[in-house]
Amino acid sequence: MILTATLGLPMLGALVLAVSRRWTETTARLFAVGVSLLPVLLLAWAWLQFDTQGALFQFVEEVPWVPSLGMAYRLGVDGIALAIATMSALVFAASIAYPINTQNQPRQYYAWMLFLQSVSLGVFLALDLLLFYVFFDLSLVGMFFLIGRWGHGQAQHSAFKFFLYTFCGSLLLLLAFIGLYLSVEPHTFDMRVLIEQQPLAGAGVSAGLIFLALMLGFAIKAPIVPVHTWLPQAHVDAPGPASAVLAGVLLKMGTYGILRIPYSMMGETFARYALIIALFAVVSILYGALVAFGQGNLKRRIAYTSINHMGYTVLGIAVAGALFQDAVYAREMALIGATVEMVAHGLITGALFLICGSFWQRTEEYDLDSYGGLLRQAPLLATFAILASFASLGLPGLAGFVAEFHIFAGTFAVYPWLAVIGVLGILITAALFLQMLQKLFFGAMPQRWAKFDDLRPAEWGVLGVLSASFVIIGIAPQFLLTLIEASATLLVGAR
Amino acid sequence: MPIGDVLPEISLTLGAVIIVLFAAFARQHQHVWAAVLALLTIGLCIGLTFTQWDGPPRLTFSGVWALDGMALSSKLVVLIAGALVIAMSPEWMQTDRRHAEYYALMLFALLGVIMMASASDTMELVVGVLLSSVASYPLAAYHRTWAPALEAGMKYFLMGALTNTLLAIGVVVLFGLTGNTGYPEIAQGLSVGHDSLALTIATASIILGLSFKLAAFPAHAWMPDVAQGSPAPVAAFLTVIPKIGAAVALARFVSLMPPDVAWRAIVALISVTTMTLGNVAALRQTDVRRLLGWSSVSQSGYALMAIVVMGTSDQALPALVFFLASYAIANLAAFAVVTYLRGRTALESYQGLARQAPIATTILIASLLSLVGIPPLIGFFGKLMLFSVTIEGGYAWLAFVAAANTVVSLFYYLRIVARMMFSDTRPTVHVLVGQWARTTMIVSGLLLIVGGLGAEMLMEFTDSIGFVR
User: Fold this and answer.
1) Could you count the other beta carbons within 10 Å of the beta carbon of residue B21?
2) Is the ipTM above a cut-off of 0.85?
């Protein structure tokens, strides 16, 4: 019941907001923040109860939905899903609590946010392919309305592009899911059965096509170069909190999907193409970093670093899926790294995009060159921006380092050359973040920002929580690593 | 004569006759009772159909009338859809002098569609197609003083006259070829041996004739005009109901073909052309009703996918009926909203509607998303089953084309959604006063969600249906 409550409470909250006619902005906001915290608490509780020696999937719930199609409402988590879901719930709570101009439609804004929280968590908690697809698609609908209604610039255009582009990916996934469904007897969408039976092992062309469709679908969502082009625009025009959610949570659906479906259900095919996937990942790492370096727009720059970071994650998963029987430990390490990267990126980039939101609310300006010298004017903002940037570039002692260390340590054992090239990405990332900080906070301050306000309590409170979490993961990652390790060991076949 | 086997159809006919008589004597403000009579008739007809449900699949009346799962389930879908259309009409029609006759025509058109779905004889098929066409022409042009309605009716009539003639020619040639009009005998005759040129002509003519009712390429051109110009409830009727009968009739007909006729390739080709054409044409429409008309064309293309894999995938026919039912609900919900909004049609005028008419907007958005196939609305399960049978039947490329088309269709549906949601203008909204249209709109909106969550019930219902052999 924990997992159903995790999904159900925000959904109920969204419904209540949608029908409550008379609530003021403050009531709606307080209510939404309160409701959005419930999943965090519930998932934390589940985390405490999770048995690291137990079965792969725990807290399983199953209610038949469409039995004649082999579809059911099946929920359950392994350590990886639990870690990502908890991070997602936290990023959502933070984004909802972050103050924003709701353009006189507070109820609608918070209702959509809660709806999106519910369905996004659903993606990570689903144990049924079709249920996964249901939540996956609904998250597009939610994000479409958030960008289109509360975005700025060419918001409608971006919302359209986002929905259409990622919907292409969804439909490829749907076709592939049907392929997987038809490959088992009796036909079922149950992920546990599909993981256990590996139905497409040795199936030749059809396995290859299904694998291609799955990887393309998830690559669009992650996104991996060259199907990333929807991302920068959606990010730039989305409101700050929606950007934080988009980067922190929605991108993870792509990488988590790769891990949960092609990696787990088609191990043999995955191993065959692991090197190609790793190559694409390295291209993403370098391309994302280089293009980010070239951006003069604050939000665009951070958006492109997401492509770079998702590249690390995919590299980790590809390494974990490569067929090197003797390198079990290295592969496990890479898988753990990939998962920690997802969690770390969610928290760090979530914070960075919220900071972007604060900039926009004050100045409606993203051009880096127009800023300068804000360190004195807004010391709190500067502190959090510097902390998050350092975490993002992988400074030891912060969460990003833990992730990247694991990934590259694993990669060195399996694809040493790719690791060498990939590490260059970290170098470029460091340069781009340092340059960004320099342009924002140091040098002479242009006169027009003389009235630039520092963070308000609501803002620094939220950023404080997010920063604390990635600092804690950086300093004492053990609590997270044990949880992930429990599942990673099973998934790479070490236990 | 086994009169009991056609009791539902007899009740429909009697109901229509009673309404015509009633219309002759009642005053105009009482005409709304004709709607009640029509609904009662349909209710009775549904009840009688249920009593036939448990019987074994069989042919009756000397083999011209099929009583099998396909006929009965599509009959139910047609009747329920017809009831929804009738329930959304009274306020729209009440100022019309001939309000009550409207329902009689509706019942006759329904009867024609049911005959199409149940016909197991080419003559019976022709009668069904003609009956539904003849009753539909006046419906399309019901507002006879309004030029666009006349134009729509005229276009519909000319197209219909041509294709109905072709259908008759096809039937005659087929009769010449096999010496029979009954389906089992035709199948028998064709399997023994045939003149392939004559068979090609006959098949092509009959498929063309049915493509008119299906609004599939190449006889689709009437659909956008009718959707735009005819009264909104009639547009709802014509975009949905004849399609159901025609799809079943087409499936029944092509299943007779001997294996050396490449009917799968032909239907697949029509399917791809229809869905692509419908979608591409809908992209730039600036009129919501016209847009829905084109989208309806593209949906016919999807439905044909199930016919392509008939026989190679055992769930093809259930998928067909399920898809048609899900499409019917979604499209009727969309037109119910348009009706409720007094036929509001220019895309511009939908600007900012979300704030002025939140419930209507929500239902319209839900119906559009259901037409795309966004879960958990009922349209998703329809599409899912279609894709599933198509892939299972070995036509993965067709499923891929349909998926690509679905992405295209998302674009134009979203254009309507964006207009309504992302604008601060506050339009003046006129709605139909009264409860009929409003209630129908809400009921069909609820059906979208309830049908999705309760898809299992519908599936059990259509699970093992097929054609009588």
Assistant:
1) 12
2) yes
Is residue B39 a contact partner of residue B440, using CB atoms and an 8 Å limit? no
Query: pLDDT for B134-162, tens place per residue?
Result: 999 999 999 888 888 999 999 999 999 99
Q: Is A212 on the interface with B (CB under 8 A)?
A: no
Q: What is the pLDDT of residue A162?
A: 92
Contacts of residue A195, Cβ cutoff 8 Å, sequence gap at least 6: A56, A264, A265
Helices (H), B313-453: 316-340, 353-356, 358-372, 378-392, 396-421, 436-453
Closest by Cα among A244, A242, A302, A232 to A102? A242
Cα separation, A229 vs A248, in Å, equals 18
β pairing state of B65-67 and A58-66: unpaired
- The rounded distance, in Å, linking the Cα atoms of B95 and B97 is 6
Q: Which residues fall within 8 angstroms of residue B302, CB to CB, at 6 or more apart?
A: B271, B275, B323, B327, B383, B386, B402, B405
What residue in A sits closest to B376 (Cα-Cα)? Answer: A134
Neighbours of A444 (CB within 10 A): 7
Pairing of strands B65-67, B58-60: antiparallel
| Through-space distance between the first and last CA atoms of chain B, rounded to whole angstroms | 21
Query: Residue A44 has which token pair?
Result: 């934390």
Residue B349 has a CB neighbour count (10 Å cut-off) of 16
| Cα–Cα distance measured from residue B465 to residue B469, given in angstroms and rounded to the nearest whole number | 12
d(CA B342, CA A481): 61
Look up residue A285 and give its two tokens: 């790492």
With CA atoms as reference, report the closest residue to A96 among A223, A204, A10: A10
Taking an 8 Å cut-off on Cβ atoms, the answer to whether B421 and A145 are in contact is: yes
pLDDT confidence band for B303 (50 / 70 / 90): very high
Q: For residue A207, count other CB atoms closer than 10 A to its CB.
A: 20
How many whole angstroms from its chain centre is CA B45?
18
Strands (E), B188-233: none
Tokens of A146: 């958030």
Could you tell me the two tokens for A362? 């004050």
Torsion of CA A132, A311, A350, A348, to 10 degrees: 130
Indicate whether B295 pLDDT > 80: yes
B455-462 and B69-88 are packed helices; what angle lies between their axes, rounded to 10 degrees?
A: 140
Q: Where are the domains of chain B?
A: 3-462
For chain A, how far is it from start to end, CA to CA, in angstroms?
Answer: 29
Please say whether the dihedral angle defined by the alpha carbons of residues B94, B99, B103 and B106, taken in this order, is positive or negative: negative
User: Are the C-beta atoms of residues A392 and A289 closer than 8 Å to each other?
Assistant: no
Query: What's the confidence (pLDDT) of residue A453?
Result: 86
Strands (DSSP E) contained in B62-218 are 65-67
Flag if B400 and A175 touch (Cβ within 8 Å).
Answer: yes
- Tokens found for residue A463: 């950023």
Partner residue opposite A66 with nearest CB, options B387, B400, B459 = B459
User: Where are the strands (E) in A381-437, listed by range?
Assistant: none
**Cβ neighbours for A226, distance < 8 A, ≥ 6 positions apart:** none
Q: Report pLDDT digits (tens) over B80-107.
A: 999 999 999 999 988 888 888 999 999 9
Show the CA angle centred on residue B298, arms to residues B295 and B303, nearest 5°: 125
pLDDT in tens, B334-371: 999 999 998 888 888 888 888 888 899 999 999 999 99
What does the alpha-carbon distance between residue A444 and residue B458 come to, in Å, rounded to a whole number?
69
Unique residue bearing structure tokens 């604050």: A298
A74 sits in which H/E element: strand A71-77
Could you give the CA distance from residue B392 to residue A94 in angstroms, rounded to a whole number?
A: 45
Contact B384 A130 (CB under 8 A): yes
pLDDT at A494: 66
- A182 contact residues in B (CB cutoff 8 A): 388, 391-392
Residue A167 has its nearest CB partner, among B384, B388, B407, at B407
Interface contact A134-B422, CB threshold 8 A: no
